[in-house]
Specification:
The chain has nine helices and seven strands. It is an alpha/beta fold. It has one domain (about 5-215): Uracil-DNA glycosylase-like domain (Uracil-DNA Glycosylase, subunit E), CATH 3.40.470.10. The termini are far apart. About 40% of the residues are buried. The structure holds uracil and iron/sulfur cluster. Iron/sulfur cluster binds near residues 37, 42, 45, 111 and 130.
């Protein structure tokens, strides 16, 4: 058990910070899941965040893309991928001929984790405890959408879907067959934005998305 988990427990004052599963209604459609996720207290992240940012997109999407967690913009607007990373993703999807609106977009963790520095809220990577706590929402989304292909954007999503041993740096762009769907992992669009050599990071990202398009 990590110290992160223990501090959530302490802060909650009881053992209730032990996962989203008890908040996930059985047999629910996406709208019902989204509504229920607003009240999730499966880990400590709901306390500082503005709102739950649930996935968006068609319930019959062939492709589900999984990010890490909402960022500052997403936290304020309540929608995934509406900030700079989302714009970069949209640009890359357009370039390879994937319609963003045909994709179900979601995150491994549904609340924004951050530290405050003055007026700014600085993104903080979710810990394993939070990813595991939140995984029941992602599992429920995948169960409803039943995609043919899941695209993991970055290491947090890849580890959430493919297990903690999976290394995006070694296996990006590789099609992995799971019983229910295929999975392909690539980097996170935020990592592309931060890359010292943007052009080469962007073209590698686009190359991975071309494989997604080819598999659709
Ligand atoms: N980064 C993510 O991983 N998800 C979002 O929704 C926005 C930025
Ligand atoms: Fe629930 Fe996930 Fe938010 Fe934690 S991050 S409170 S598990 S929705």
């Amino acid at each position: 058990m990590t110290s992160d988990h223990q501090s959530n427990r302490l802060a909650n004052g009881d053992a209730k910070g032990s996962g989203a599963a008890e908040f996930v209604p059985a047999g629910a459609d996406l709208a019902q899941l989204r509504a229920a996720a607003r009240k999730c207290r499966g880990c400590g992240l709901y306390r500082a965040a503005t709102q739950t940012v649930f996935g968006t997109g068609p319930s019959d999407a062939a492709v589900v893309m999984v990010g890490e967690q909402p960022g500052d913009y997403e936290d304020r607007q309540g929608q995934p991928f509406v900030g700079p990373a989302g714009r970069l993703l949209e640009r890359a999807l357009e370039e390879v001929g994937i319609d963003r609106d045909a994709v179900y977009l979601t995150n491994a963790v549904k609340h924004f984790k951050f530290v405050e520095r003055g007026k700014r809220r600085i993104h903080k990577q979710p810990g394993r405890t939070e990813v595991v706590a939140c995984s029941a929402w992602l599992a429920a989304e995948l169960q409803v959408v039943e995609p043919a292909l899941v695209v993991c954007l970055g290491a947090v999503a890849a580890k959430a879907v493919l297990g903690t041993d999976f290394k995006v740096s070694e296996r990006r762009g590789e099609m992995v067959a799971l019983p229910a769907y295929q999975v392909i992992a690539t980097v996170h669009p935020s990592a592309v934005l931060r890359a010292p050599d943007f052009e080469s990071a962007y073209s590698d990202f686009v190359a991975d998305l071309r494989k997604v398009h080819a598999a659709m």
